[in-house]
Write a structure and sequence with these properties.
This is (Fe-S)-binding protein. GO terms for molecular function: 2 iron, 2 sulfur cluster binding; iron ion binding; monooxygenase activity; oxidoreductase activity, acting on paired donors, with incorporation or reduction of molecular oxygen. Keywords: 2Fe-2S, Iron, Iron-sulfur, Metal-binding, Oxidoreductase. It is a single chain. By secondary structure, the protein is an alpha+beta fold. The chain has two domains: 64-162, Rieske Iron-sulfur Protein; 180-433, Naphthalene 1,2-dioxygenase Alpha Subunit, Chain A, domain 1, CATH 3.90.380.10. Helix content is 26%, strand content 22%. It contains eight helices and 17 strands. It has helices spanning 19-30, 40-43, 45-56, 179-191, 213-220, 252-272, 376-401, 416-433; strands spanning 61-65, 74-80, 83-89, 95-99, 114-116, 120-121, 128-129, 135-137, 160-164, 167-171, 199-209, 279-281, 289-294, 325-330, 334-338, 343-352, 355-365. A seven-stranded antiparallel beta sheet has the order 11-17-16-15-14-13-12, with helices on both faces. A four-stranded antiparallel beta sheet has the order 4-3-2-5, with no helix packed on it. It has a three-stranded antiparallel beta sheet with strand order 1-10-9, covered by helices on one side. The chain is globular and about 80 Å long. It starts with 18 loop residues before the first helix and ends with a helix.
């Protein structure tokens, strides 16, 4: 008779990783500090799937602004792979977020990127939910008194949401990190004066870049390529990100002009109690971020060809247009510029391994009048041009990292924040993949 040894207890078995996770960890280990990522991390569909599941579905991400859901029933949707999140303002004027899935048989509740509802009504079998997610009506559902389910147990599945100085962040994790609250405290002194809760959307443009989402974020973290942004360089100093000893001779005049503008900004900020100095934690915390107020070139007021203001009404209670730009970068998918006359936000959303949505939103004072206080074409001109140029750069890079000849190259002195972003990505993915 053949005898068999008893199987070991389940709790003594070492966890096994699926082959894709093993490959991911191997590629993360291959990455050298100060160099870009191995090509497969920008191109492989299975690894992109892990980006979604291990990072986007577990970390806080930027969904939009409170100005995009100004009234009860107003909503926006954010799609991350097969996951759809519904963000809306409820009847009590609180911003909430839900999984965009009916609790009956799973139909998608809302298919448009934005809109307004009285109740949330499933288009399949007309199950109806209040704006707080509770089930209000389910045709032909067996009553609880007759053995049917409790409607209270069929509310929409909630998604964690935090409003940070008018910015809406969401997290799909069952136990979201509390990190967003600490980041919110850090950025409030820079953004609160711009009163995003008293703004409206003047324009919103969606642009699909033909590249991986990480390339989009990397491109934003350096001005090494800013010679390719002639419109932006009218107000955006080209020595951004460089230390004093790194400024090349050809940019010395621009840098001296930058230093003078920075001193003027320091005086203006101190007089108004506005935070100015850089605060950053880009690698070690789950919601890596950097925030700073910096001077603008030209008249120093706004993103216009000569730097003069683009909106007649200033934001919040600000009394001076020449206050530079309060810039916030948050990982994985946000950067923004808050000026005295408007705010422009950028949301980065992955559509596929080589396709990324960049959603740009321009906010102005809620009482500003189009045609009188601002012109949409003028307001959006610089960043529409810059986004188009950046899309071309990202597409060029995507083509290159997909080429067998690609090898991760060294970053320049001005690409410190690119290295920080990639290091953050490696750390977060290694943490999640090893669980």
């Amino acid at each position: 008779m053949t005898s068999f040894a008893p199987a070991p207890p389940l709790d003594t078995l070492a966890p096994t990783l699926d082959p894709t996770r093993v490959r991911l960890l191997d590629l993360l280990d291959q990455r050298q500090p100060g160099r870009s990522l191995p090509g497969a991390l920008y191109t492989d569909p299975e690894l992109h799937d892990l980006d979604l599941r291990l990072l986007w579905h577990r970390q806080w991400f930027f969904a939009g602004t409170v100005a995009e859901v100004p009234e009860p029933g107003d909503y926006l949707t954010v799609d991350l792979g097969t996951v759809s999140v519904l963000v809306l303002r409820d009847d009590d004027e609180q911003v909430r977020a839900f999984r965009n899935v009916c609790r009956h048989r799973g139909a998608r509740l809302v298919s448009e990127p934005r809109g307004s509802v009285g109740n949330i009504v499933c288009g399949y079998h007309r199950w109806t939910y209040a704006t707080d997610g509770t089930l209000r009506h389910a045709p032909q559902l067996v009553p609880t008194a007759e053995g049917g389910p409790d409607p209270a147990c069929l509310s929409l599945r909630t998604v964690a949401v935090r409003v940070v100085s008018g910015l809406v962040f969401c997290c799909l994790a069952a136990e979201p990190s509390a990190d967003v609250d600490a980041v919110g405290e850090a950025v409030a002194p820079y953004l609160d004066a711009h009163a995003l809760d008293r703004t409206k959307v003047a324009a919103q443009v969606d642009l699909v870049e033909q590249g991986n989402w990480k390339l989009t974020m990397e491109n934003n973290r350096e001005c090494y390529h800013c010679d390719g942004h002639p419109e932006l360089l009218r107000t955006f100093f080209p020595t951004w990100g460089l230390r004093e000893d790194q400024v090349p001779p050809r940019l010395r005049a621009s840098h001296e002009r930058y230093l003078a503008a920075e001193e003027d900004l320091r005086v203006a900020c101190e007089a108004r109690g506005l935070a100015r100095d850089a605060v950053e934690d880009l690698v070690d915390r789950p919601l890596g971020f950097r925030v700073q107020r910096e001077a603008l070139d030209g008249a120093g007021e706004s993103f216009s060809p000569d730097g003069t203001r683009l909106v007649g009404r200033l934001l919040g209670d600000l009394d001076e247009p020449r206050l530079g730009r309060a810039t916030l970068h948050a990982q994985p998918n946000l950067w923004l510029h808050a000026l005295a006359d408007h705010v422009v936000t950028f949301a980065v959303l992955p559509l596929g391994p080589d396709r990324t949505l960049v959603r740009t939103t321009w906010l102005v004072d809620a009482d500003a009048r189009e045609g009188a206080d601002y012109d949409v074409e003028a307001l959006t001109g610089v960043w529409r041009a810059t986004n188009s140029q950046d899309a071309a750069f990202v597409e060029l890079t995507q083509a290159g990292v997909a080429d067998p000849a690609y090898e991760p190259g060294p970053y320049s002195e001005g690409e410190r924040q690119v290295d920080a972003f990639v290091s953050w990505y490696v750390a977060r993915m290694r943490e999640e993949a090893s669980r």
